[in-house]
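User: I'm preparing a small set of examples for a lab meeting where we compare how different chains pack in three dimensions. I only have the primary sequence for this one, and I'd like the structure in token form so I can line it up with the others. Please keep the answer compact; I'll paste it straight into my notes.
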Amino acid sequence: MIKCVFCGSENVVKNGNRRCRTRNKQRYFCKSCSKSFIDDIEFSKIKGTPQIVTLSLDLYFKGISLRQIQDHLKQIYDFKVHHETVRRWIIRYTGLMNDYVDKFKVFGSKEWHVDEQMIKSKGKYVWLWNALDADSRFLIACSVTERREIGDARLIFKKAKELTIGDPETITTDGLWSYEKAIRREMQTLGYRKLMRHIRLVSMQDKINNNLIERYHSTFRSRDKVMRGSAKGIINGYRLYYNFIRPHMSLDGQTPAQAAGINLKLQDNKWLSLIKVSMR
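Assistant: Understood. Below is the structure token output for the 280-residue chain.
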């Protein structure tokens, strides 16, 4: 059902077409507010169609390079576009979607797995920190730092607190020395210190391990090889893809967002549904 983009009314009728460089777009007229609009207003000022743009997003976060996407669009769809245009689509729409989804907080997360990995950003190596909810596999927060000091470690816990409701009972990390003090200063307040458990994995022989977050790191690294550029843009875009778009095998085909109770009721083309709901 088409709704007016201005007032939300469903009392709309078709009102001719708007001629664009790549295609004609259906124009509608709202009888309630007397305004005209096109249905895919989210894509009104770009060259690509909604299907082309969302396909490009999906291919990119599945590990296909920008130039390979450019070639795919030309070969299969006879659609000519520069690879830097594809990059701009990715930056624009992942930014809009992230602003929207960050309004939803994970409720009642009992166990966090936190770890860091080295990635390359703009020609130099930096540290990517991730916090994962053990039950839903939801990637709660990410941060990027140049070092691994206490202040750097505190940043990931600060972000995770802002994006969750309630404190975890257990935090599992590797043996990095800065985690212990970062958790004590950022998480273990005076009234909660005795209740929170910090599990430090100091060797590969530990009975309890951090495999959940390590598996995420492996998945991210397989895509990171082609997702070159700003580390912040890459990780925020991939976090969006991982949480809201990509079905998780261990969750019976649900996304981590659905498993965490954040169900946006996205349609088959999750990218398109999420873009539309993020911009209205």
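A couple of notes for your slides: The beta strands are 12-19, 24-30, 36-38, 106-107, 111-121, 124-133, 139-145, 164-165, 170-174, 197-201. Residues 1-39 form one domain.

User: Perfect, thanks.
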